[in-house]
Specification:
332 residues; mainly alpha
């Protein structure tokens, strides 16, 4: 009996000692990884992280460090393989999903990327940046099913705060319009208006979007009516007035343009003292130059365009209509 006890003790001690050695080696590897990372020795760090990952496959932090290093070295397939082993979704972090989506985007694996977007938004529906990217992708590839699924997830989240993110609203409408799903875009706007799932500033933008969709369908009169209602409700919102001027110009309606342009100019002069309306001023000048062109006054158009381009020359940031004015000057 004493011999059996002694044998058992030796075996237990041996096993305990071996486990202790493994634990100590892991601690050394962790320390080595931190030192190598601080020194920027990626090749050696990769080897050490691979060893740790073999011994501690359940360590998500190590897996993320290893996958991040693969991504840094443009090794996208190993990066995804390292991340794909994780099955405990309840422990996944935003960093995990972002890294996975970055790899899938780099590999141009669109179906996998769309799937990751959906999973991510199930966990983090408040992330309007990823929500925007997902909706844009759905619009670009014409994936109507994913577009509707994404909006369902985002709408369920908005219900908690009774407010839909304005960026998400704009991106969703653009995705519908991009695929000529005009009736769905109108229905989406109608649902928003019924539920009041937006902040006050978005109300008039929704009316502008509805007018844009009607115009794209050739319903020019209905489009103008929508904008006129928005102009009254908003008490002369400058962007609504500019839309009315733009539509008149597109219709070659000189008389209506000459009505809306002075109103836009007066609104900018009065509101511009309180707000930064640089974008609106740039748009107003562009429409004014188009009016010169429509009226046949090409000399005035060129002179004013040249003067403006010289005034912004050297600026690092050009506004949307700055580029249009430059194109107009080059063209004429």
């Amino acid at each position: 009996d004493s011999n059996e006890t002694a044998t058992t003790e030796i075996y237990t001690l041996g096993r305990s000692s071996a486990a202790s050695d493994v634990y100590k080696r892991q601690g050394i590897y962790f320390a080595m990884a931190d030192i190598l990372e601080a020194l920027g020795k990626d090749k050696e760090l990769l080897e050490v992280l691979q060893i740790i990952n073999i011994h501690k496959p359940e360590d998500l932090e190590i897996r993320l460090r290893l996958a991040s290093l693969y991504y840094k070295k443009n090794l996208y397939q190993p990066c995804l393989e390292t991340l794909s082993r994780e099955k405990n979704y309840e422990y996944l972090t935003a960093d995990y999903f972002r890294l996975r989506m970055s790899c899938e985007k780099a590999m141009n694996d669109i179906p996998a990327l769309m799937s990751s977007y959906k999973e991510y938004l199930d966990f983090f529906p408040d992330d309007s940046i990823v929500g925007k990217q997902a909706l844009q992708l759905a619009g670009e590839i014409g994936d109507y099913t994913s577009l509707r699924e994404l909006l369902k997830v985002l709408r369920e989240n908005s219900g908690k705060k009774q407010q839909f993110n304005p960026v998400i609203i704009k991106t969703a409408i653009n995705a519908f319009v991009q695929n000529r799903l005009y009736s769905e875009a109108e229905q989406f706007i109608s649902d928003l208006q019924k539920r009041k799932e937006y902040d006050e500033a978005t109300e008039y933008n929704l009316m502008r979007e509805l007018a844009r969709i009607k115009y794209l369908q050739g319903k020019k009169f209905a489009s103008e009516q929508e904008l006129r209602i928005a102009a009254v409700k908003s008490q002369g919102d400058i962007n609504v007035i500019l839309d009315l001027a733009a539509n008149a110009l597109k219709n070659n309606d000189l008389m209506s343009t000459q009505v809306w342009m002075p109103i836009a100019r007066k609104t900018i002069n009065s509101v511009g003292k309180e707000k930064d309306l640089a974008d609106e001023k740039s748009a107003l000048l562009y429409y004014s130059l188009m009016l010169d062109q429509l009226s046949g006054d090409m000399k005035s158009m060129r002179e004013r365009a040249e003067k403006y381009i010289k005034s912004i020359n050297g600026k690092t940031h050009y506004r949307k209509y700055d580029r249009e004015i430059l194109k107009m000057l080059i063209r004429y």
